[in-house]
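Researcher: Sequence recovery benchmark, item below. Answer with residues only.
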């Protein structure tokens, strides 16, 4: 959530910032009104408590009883006031950073660069669904029979490719030399600490999910188990971020970098009619996610590090892609800035091809840290938190299948994965 003092001190700045993210600036006025009432009532409670203590010391029993009754009535109103005030505060999205492109939606996203050569085929390229079914790698029909729509079985070599992708990422981001190289290439002023692997829980408490800032807008995407009062994560960021809730880091120990692997779950509530076939947009998928906790002054460079890692991984697979800087109106509530990577999929649009998103990298500044109450010592300030996709497995499998397809209907295995898969080509 936002800094309350900033909202009180510079309300017009906050209104301008949230307006860029398509949020109603009246939300700021609503919070300030509730905040003013809450502060007045809190001050009143403090004054009554002080008066009660004084009367008790002076043994003015009758007067003390009257003040005590009045205090009880005022105190009873505070919890509801505090709840409404906090809800109004949480309804305010993070402010976009100054260099974020302005614009109301994804059409204003700025393409920063295109990397890699798009494959040229001497045959009409097929989409991944056709190839996956022919080679018996993807089975959505039987998955629908078992689980319903937007599910799929990965079979034969497809799971081998998944495990190979996992190993590629882990080997890369846990190697300090690789991190150092990206830092040097991008002229970043941050430590070359490698990432710590973690397999997190995929079921988390409501307070953990709420603290990550996805409930106010986008909550319809999240699966909730009413009986157990637990949420299923839509990305492992949602369980890695709260891992250090109500804790303080020593500044000298920062940055703290994790690479997590988990299965993720999403309702895809806003995507009816979109990508209903195949495994591009599904309810369950596996993902490797990077998460960084750092000092505020280094979060800009840490953001560039995440993007640098994502690009190196795509380059290792020799997949053509483009990098986007996301417009303010297309940012989620927690993000202050975000990069996306979109891979070229030659089999889409009946062989015409198109770019589709595979990665994002977000700097949430101190927005999530305030909700989680994660600080650093000795300053006692809030840390900054960032997250970035290493690989969303399903989408990378799609990219490999379409970009490495052959005329005879087989799939060449990317060179970077062959030592893990044990194959040069997938045939049936």
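Model:
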């Amino acid at each position: 959530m936002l800094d309350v003092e900033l909202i009180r001190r510079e309300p017009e700045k906050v209104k301008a910032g949230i307006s860029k993210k398509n949020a109603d600036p009246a939300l700021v006025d609503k919070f300030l009104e509730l905040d003013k009432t809450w502060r007045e009532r809190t001050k009143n409670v403090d004054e009554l408590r002080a008066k009660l203590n004084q009367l008790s010391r002076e043994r003015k029993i009758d007067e003390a009883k009257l003040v005590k009754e009045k205090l009880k009535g005022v105190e009873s109103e505070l919890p509801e006031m505090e709840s409404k005030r906090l809800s109004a505060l949480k309804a305010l999205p993070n402010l976009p950073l100054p260099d974020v492109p302005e614009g109301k939606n994804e059409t204003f996203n700025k393409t920063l660069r295109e990397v890699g050569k798009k494959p040229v085929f001497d045959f009409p390229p097929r989409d991944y669904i056709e190839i996956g079914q022919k080679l018996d790698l993807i089975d959505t029909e039987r998955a629908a029979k078992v689980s319903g729509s937007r599910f799929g079985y990965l079979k034969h070599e497809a799971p081998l490719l998944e495990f190979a992708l996992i190993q590629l990422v882990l080997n890369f981001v846990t190697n300090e030399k690789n991190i150092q190289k990206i830092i040097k290439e991008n002229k970043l002023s941050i430590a070359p600490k490698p990432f710590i692997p973690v397999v997190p829980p995929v079921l988390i408490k409501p307070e953990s999910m709420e603290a990550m800032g996805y409930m106010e807008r986008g909550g319809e995407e999240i699966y909730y188990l009413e009986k157990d009062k637990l949420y299923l994560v839509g990305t492992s960021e949602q369980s890695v971020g709260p891992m250090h809730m109500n804790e303080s880091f020593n500044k000298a120990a920062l940055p703290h970098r994790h690479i997590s692997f988990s299965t993720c779950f999403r309702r895809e509530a806003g995507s009816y009619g979109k990508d209903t076939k195949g495994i591009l947009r599904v309810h369950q998928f596996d993902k490797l996610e990077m998460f960084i906790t750092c000092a505020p002054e280094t979060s800009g460079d840490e953001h560039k590090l995440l993007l640098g890692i994502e690009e190196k991984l795509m380059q290792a697979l020799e997949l053509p892609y483009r990098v986007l800087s996301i417009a303010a109106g297309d940012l989620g509530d927690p993000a202050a800035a975000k990069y996306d990577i979109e891979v070229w999929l030659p089999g889409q649009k009946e062989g015409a091809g198109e770019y589709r998103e595979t990665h994002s990298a977000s700097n949430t500044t101190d927005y999530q840290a305030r909700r989680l109450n994660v600080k650093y010592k000795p300053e006692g300030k809030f840390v900054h938190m960032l997250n970035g996709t290493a690989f969303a497995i399903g989408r990378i499998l799609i990219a490999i299948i379409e970009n490495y397809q052959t005329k005879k209907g087989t799939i060449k295995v990317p060179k970077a994965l062959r030592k893990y898969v044990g194959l040069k080509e997938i045939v049936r």
